[in-house]
Amino acid sequence: MSDKSEKITMLHGAGGSVMHDLVKNYIVKYFGGLGNAAEVPLEAMDDAAVIGDIVFKSDSHAVKPIFFPGGDIGRMAISGTVNDISCLGAEPYALACGLILEEGLTLSDLEKILVSMRQTCIEAGVGIVTGDTKVVEKGSLGGCVMNVSGIGKRTSALESNLQVVRQYRELKTRWTLDSNLTEGDKIILSGTIGDHGLAVLSAQQGLTFGSKILSDVKPLNHMVQALLGTVGGVVAMKDPTRGGLADALNEWTEKSKIGILVHENKVPIRQDVQTACEMLGLDPLEIGNEGKMIIGIVPEKAEEALKFLKQTKEGKDAQIIGETTTDFKGVAMQTLVGGKRIIAKPVGDPVPRIC
Asked: pTM here?
């Protein structure tokens, strides 16, 4: 039983070790094992669940403010669900949306959000087919919060990808899961990190960084399906949202029981984001992103995949940032000065209400 004096804090929803402990020790404790029909169940703690050939995901959003440079809560909610379904190699095709609106939200702001959601759905090629709307009293909600759930299906691109993987090594699963990495796999990051977190922080605090830092929020399903079908060899994918790159890589090492070595000079970061992080004392590796993907791939296909990604709009800044290893456990970074430092799982994302 829990300590009755212990209370929920903002860290419990910020990604990182505190949130993961909450999910494992409470959510999985009571709901784990109920989904006997699930091929990838709740207790696997992947980005989505699998039942038969269907991938199922539910994602809630409480970003504050609801409009920020480069995006809004509506675009984020659609992109977040689409991207989590894509991480398992599936193609999203139907969404459900639950809106909780705060008394006092203007209808013009609601319409802006709905227009943005529609445009993002068109961009991703997916539709909202059902949902629910509630209104709560005026208070600290920040305008609105929302949940978007979705289902995705297996594709010929995923099947083709797995055939390529099996040319090089055994793979027991039918999906691109966090636990699929083995020694020697390369790690690709699809673009620059930290953009979203800094954009939201600037809106929260009224900060300016000498340049316009925009959120990277976008759906990545078309990029993912094209990579799977055209190149193949992908074994794992994850979008580094709350807790950033540091949290996502640590999840991989824990589930795959493998070490990951990251090369500092290969991690793409915009100069203005790097400067802002240094000024604020933030680690860009721990800041959430909403339009990036880390990709684990067999080494034989890594360079071909990188070349392909750089030709896409979503992956034009992609880099091979590291590889898996059995030399150590956890995540380490090869620094610019020649040493190594441990990349620990963050306690939580340093920017509150980032998504």
From this structure: 0.94
